[in-house]
Every structure is written in C-alpha cells, then in structure tokens.
Amino acid sequence: RLPTEAEWEYACRAGTLSNYSFGDSKKNLAKYAWFDESSKKAPRAVGQLLPNPWGAYDMYGNVSEWCEDVWHSHYKGAPGDGTAWGGNDEDRAHRGGHWDRSATKSRSHSRDHDETKKGDRTIGLRVVLPTLNPQTLLPTPTPSVSAVTSVEPGGADARPVGAPVSTLWNASIKQSEEGAPKDFRHVPVKE
After folding, report:
1. What is the DSSP letter of 7?
2. Burial group, residue 147, by CB count within 10 angstroms (0-12, 13-18, 19+)
3. Which among 54, 70, 88, 188 is least buried, having the fewest CB atoms inside 10 angstroms?
4. What is the pLDDT of residues 153-179, one digit of tens each?
5. How far apart are CA 14 and CA 101, in angstroms?
C-alpha cells in the first residue's frame, strides 16, 4: 500500500525535528536531493545522493511521492492515529517535492496534491509493507499510530508527535553496477 502522510513524514524526518533530516538550512540539499537547482530539469536514477539518517534515498526531490490520503488543505478533522484521511475527492496528497521544485517546497513538511488520474513524470511512489513475524513470516497486527504534526501543514514549526508502526520500503533501492539490487534498504518506522 501507499504510505499515509503521517508515515511518509515520519520516515522522511528520520527522528529529526528540522526542515530537512540534515538540518534547517537548504545549503546542503544538493547532497541529498535532485531539485530545481541541481537536477538539470529531469528525474534521476535513484540512490545517487546521500540517504537520510535511516538509510532512505531520495526522500527530498527527484519525484514527489503519492500518499494514501485524500487531499485536505488543512489538518482540521484529520485522523489522530496516523491512518489515511479518506474522502471522495480525486485529489490525493503527495510529498517530498520533485526535480522541478524549489528547496523550500522540498522540506520534510511540504505537501502537494494532484488528481490520481493525472499522469505526471514528477510524481512516483514508495510502498509500505507490513512488518513480518520472524517466526511465522506472517504480517503482525498493526497497532494505531500517532499523527505526524501538531500544527497546520507547511508551517515551519511542524513537528512529528508519534511513531507509525510498519516498514516504509524505500523505492530507491541502490543498484549494483550489474543492475541488481546492491542492498535492500528499508526504513523502520517504529523504534
């Protein structure tokens, strides 16, 4: 499944409270993201830049990533447990900015939306897989999760307030020279 906005932002922040997982300044963004100043106006192969502290590549820039949530311009009435916010609108949230966005629109708390029917080379996805019981290899029950922010979206002081439970698999699998996965990095979203 797609991550909820809460899960996506928690994994993006990787335990930090700053605008980016590496600090508040956009000065070092080009080390972590393909955005309007570094991308040469095109998406890039995944995993060429630095990962966030939890090993996730391309959380900022390159392509924005669809979330399960229906778009809402505010958090009033949002689920408080980190689950997806439903509704009948065809607009869905996507996060992370992309190769043609500015540094300020690629921060951990930045949000955007589009119709899901729209094809766009600036939007991609990551997937969330259930955590498996190591003895049975069956999915473990997923307990409730906490909401990701305590303020309006896009606010400079948006902060994570809880830890989702699952694993956000990084769609950005680093490739070996032969093209096979070199490692299968994942982001544990429960400490």
Report:
1. H
2. buried
3. 88
4. 444 433 333 433 344 443 333 333 333
5. 22
Amino acid, res. 175? Q
Task: For the chain, give the percent of residues with pLDDT over 90.
Answer: 56
Strands (E), 44-144: 64-70, 91-95, 111-115, 123-124, 127-129
Q: Quickly tell me which residue has 């609108």 as its tokens.
A: 89
C-alpha 78/C-alpha 40 separation (Å) is 37
Q: Whole-angstrom Cα distance, residue 20 to residue 182?
A: 26
Q: 34: which residues sit within 8 A by CB, 6+ positions away?
A: 43, 44, 49, 58, 61, 62, 99
Q: Rounded to the nearest 5 degrees, what angle is found at the Cα of 173, between the Cα atoms of 153 and 86? A: 35
Phi then psi dihedrals of residue 175, to 5 deg: -100, 145
Spell out the alpha helix ranges (H) of the chain: 5-13
Token couple for 138: 């069956």
How is the beta sheet containing 167-169 ordered, strand by strand? 127-129, 167-169, 186-188
Query: What is the DSSP secondary structure assignment for residue 129, as one 8-state letter?
Result: E
